[in-house]
């Protein structure tokens, strides 16, 4: 080996977190892999010009198990989760940070896979990585890789807020529920469904922007991405905040048949499961058909459906109507039914 030259390590080692030469080499690899979605200047903080007078900010951490799965990985989930949180506030996502905790022994090719997913998903969402941080821990102190992202967006239209929801508003889902949970559990437990049921993970800012443009000013009142806690958690959040009863039609819920089969095997109710590519919208009834038509014209909303409405009743509960027309109270889970799905 020539003096001053070192063979690149094929996996993460503790010295990658030392701040010395290996750290610089790792940062160079990260920046080169991210390509044009990285616009940071390698300073300790990013200096950004923000259009408009109001910005939205969010942050999230990702510990998904497994971090690499059939049609995605933790990198794709991290970008989608942060972008979608900004989008449902009514903001246009612009910038993300990327923090990584890497376990020693992680193959470099797996790190490159995650960074490639970050790059491609950021390109699709139209956002840029402006700064980041990398820490390395000993083997056994993390599960290969954990990520943290923060996001900044601007408001080019009025924010979407729960307080804008009114009695009579229709509850619309943009796509099937339960697929992300089934996909990951199938890999974890060896159930054999992962080829037929794929994760729904997707950046939804483009879909939501299209809907807001098509529906008309102010007619989509509020939105939530249906992630941890599932649809039930979203509906209970709104019922409690609004002091209103939310009623849904259980038979209207969009659920893939294979997902139903897997959930039955596991004894899990899809309404409580995590998703990474589904929105719950609260829509003025005058705009319902326009919203559904706009959703169904987009690849991420092709299976959109109205599932219920916000009623005028002032009891803050969620009612579920079954096939026979019988109504029952949909109970909220006290804790997480399934851990580490995002």
List the helices and strands and how they pair.
Elements: H1 21-34, E1 55-62, E2 68-69, E3 72-73, H2 74-88, E4 92-103, H3 108-125, E5 128-137, E6 145-154, E7 170-173, H4 179-189, H5 205-215, E8 220-225, H6 230-242, E9 246-249, H7 257-266, E10 279-283, H8 288-296, E11 305-310, E12 318-321, E13 327-329
Parallel strand pairs: 4-5, 9-12
Antiparallel strand pairs: 1-6, 2-3, 4-6, 7-10, 7-11, 8-10, 9-11, 12-13
Helix pairs in contact: 1-3, 2-3, 5-8
Give a structural overview.
The chain has eight helices and 13 strands. By secondary structure, it is an alpha+beta fold. The protein folds into two domains: about 140 residues, PurM-like, N-terminal domain (60s Ribosomal Protein L30, Chain: A), CATH 3.30.1330; about 170 residues, PurM-like C-terminal domain (Phosphoribosyl-aminoimidazole Synthetase, Chain A, domain 2), CATH 3.90.650.10. Strands 8-10-7-11-9-12-13 form a seven-stranded mixed beta sheet. Strands 1-6-4-5 form a four-stranded mixed beta sheet, with helices on one face. It has a two-stranded antiparallel sheet with strand order 2-3. A hairpin with a 5-residue loop joins β12 and β13. α2 runs parallel beside α3 and α5 runs antiparallel to α8. It is globular, with a radius of gyration of 21 Å.
């Amino acid at each position: 080996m020539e003096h001053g030259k070192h063979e690149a390590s094929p996996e993460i080692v503790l010295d990658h977190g030392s701040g010395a030469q290996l750290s610089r080499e790792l940062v160079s690899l990260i920046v080169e892999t991210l390509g044009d979605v990285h616009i940071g200047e390698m300073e300790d903080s990013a200096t950004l010009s923000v259009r408009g007078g109001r910005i939205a900010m969010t942050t999230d951490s990702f510990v998904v198990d497994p971090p690499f799965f059939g049609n995605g990985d933790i990198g794709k989930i991290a970008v989608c989760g942060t972008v979608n949180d900004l989008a449902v506030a009514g903001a246009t996502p612009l910038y993300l940070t990327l923090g990584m905790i890497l376990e020693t022994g992680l193959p470099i090719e797996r790190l490159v896979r995650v960074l490639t997913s970050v790059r491609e998903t950021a390109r699709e969402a139209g956002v840029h990585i402006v700064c980041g941080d990398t820490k390395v821990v000993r083997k056994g102190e993390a599960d290969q890789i954990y990520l943290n992202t923060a996001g900044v967006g601007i408001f080019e239209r009025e924010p979407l807020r729960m307080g804008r929801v009114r009695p009579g508003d229709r509850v619309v889902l943009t796509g099937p529920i339960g697929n992300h949970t089934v996909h990951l559990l199938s890999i974890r437990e060896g159930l054999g469904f992962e080829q037929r049921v794929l994760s729904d993970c997707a950046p939804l800012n483009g879909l939501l922007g299209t809907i807001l443009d098509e529906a008309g000013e102010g007619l989509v009142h509020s939105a939530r991405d249906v992630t941890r806690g599932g649809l039930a958690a979203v509906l209970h959040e709104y019922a409690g905040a609004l002091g209103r009863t939310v009623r849904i039609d259980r038979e209207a819920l969009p659920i893939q048949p294979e997902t139903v089969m897997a959930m039955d095997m596991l004894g899990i109710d899809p309404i409580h499961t995590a998703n990474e590519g589904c929105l719950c919208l609260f829509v003025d009834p005058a705009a319902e058909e326009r919203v559904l038509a706009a959703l169904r014209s987009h690849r991420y909303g092709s299976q959109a459906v109205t599932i219920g409405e916000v009623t005028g009743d002032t009891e803050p509960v969620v009612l579920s109507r079954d096939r026979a027309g019988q109504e029952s109270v949909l109970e909220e889970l006290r804790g997480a039914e399934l851990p580490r799905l995002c």
